[in-house]
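ok so for the tutorial part 2 we go from a plain amino acid sequence to predicted structure tokens. step 1 is just haveing the sequence, like this:
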Amino acid sequence: MSEDHLPLALSALGRDSQNSTFGERKKGRSHVFAKEFLEKLDVMMAEIGAPEITQHTTEEEFKKFILGGRTS
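step 2 — the prediction. this is what the tokens look like for a chain of 72 residues:
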């Protein structure tokens, strides 16, 4: 694979390519979602058969789920 476009691709990480669609971008802070949104997300994940993915799922648990199909 050519690396010709790598510098340009990496430079995109320096700006908000979603134009704050998901909230204001602040250095060192992750996005904070409303409690109601997270509760609805928990219900939706249970409905589609992934109840182990909730608002309390850690990054490591999420990675395990994505790579292996389940966290437990």
